[in-house]
Amino acid sequence: MEKITINTRGFRSEILVGERWEAVSGLLPEKNTVIITDDNVSQLYGNRFPKVPVFSLAPGEGSKKLGVIEYLAGKLLKAGIDRSGFVLAVGGGVICDVTGFLASVYMRGIRCGYVSSTLLSQVDASTGGKNGVNLGGTKNMLGTIRQPEFVICDPAMLLTLPEQEYLSGLAELIKTAIIGDKELFDLIERSFDKIMLRNSDLLTLLVAKSVRFKGLIVSNDEMETGLRRILNFGHTFGHAVEMQKGVKHGFAVASGMELSTEFSFERRYISVDEKERISKLLKRFKLVEKLDLTDDQMEKLVLHDKKKTGSDIHFVFTRGIGKAIVEKVPVGEVLGFYKRFRDKK
Length: 345
Known about the structure:
Elements: E1 2-8, E2 11-17, E3 33-38, H1 39-45, E4 54-57, H2 66-78, E5 86-91, H3 93-105, E6 111-116, H4 119-125, E7 130-135, E8 138-145, E9 150-153, H5 163-180, H6 182-190, H7 192-196, H8 200-220, H9 235-245, H10 249-266, H11 272-284, H12 295-302, E10 308-309, E11 312-320, E12 323-330, H13 331-344
Helix pairs in contact: 2-3, 3-4, 4-5, 4-8, 5-6, 5-8, 5-10, 9-10, 9-12, 10-11, 12-13
């Protein structure tokens, strides 16, 4: 087990990678605690949850909305949770997002922690304190930043994931490698079979490397005013694909990463060999979605992107495997690239 500490604005968050999820019982307050989970996770693990009130949501993006936050806040109030309360998320990215958002606004903020049950959540969503809910067809438009006191990442929980859910998380792991860790990229490249077999030792290593990198970024730029923006690699196009096609987050981001890599190549930021390595790895794991959004659909969704400021957008490029830069690019230039890319397909 590896403990990774993230320090932000005087707050300390501990990520426990390789810890058994049942160890959470020893981390919780003795009283005034509730669990938020989803129906799938509850069915798998609910009989081993700590003996506290449990509120279970429908799985999926449909639960990431303000109405659910209001519903849960009412549940907390009826359960007698006051400002000394604690909310534990047991689930994937959606549950961690909803729980963190709820904890940040209920009674102006109460404590929270996560048991992260999916690969996507372990390598990305549960680290860094970002919590968002969707607004209509716009991804994560309403959000807060609140660090959990702890996150448990148990590789044994990944064994119960459906394959598409598992691969969705792998896309975010590859993203981390592209933007900041060439050694991680090399390791993923040569470990295809072990990754597909969900080797626990390897997954613990991969998750720990990803969390260490993201933790370093977040510790230096919690509020995403500069460096943290590189974590959005592939997300400008990816969020558009996700909201329009309704595919899992990782698959949409993988398609966004393919586009962003091609855009980087067009600008001569990367070599053809590096471009092909990235594309080949994404396709080897069958992550890339068919890009059939019309120009109008893409424009509508990109114009609502949170990274847009005025007529520009903070776009993340790769400068080579393990390196990333952020540039303010006119929205029209981003959309023009998408049209050129789609016309070539």
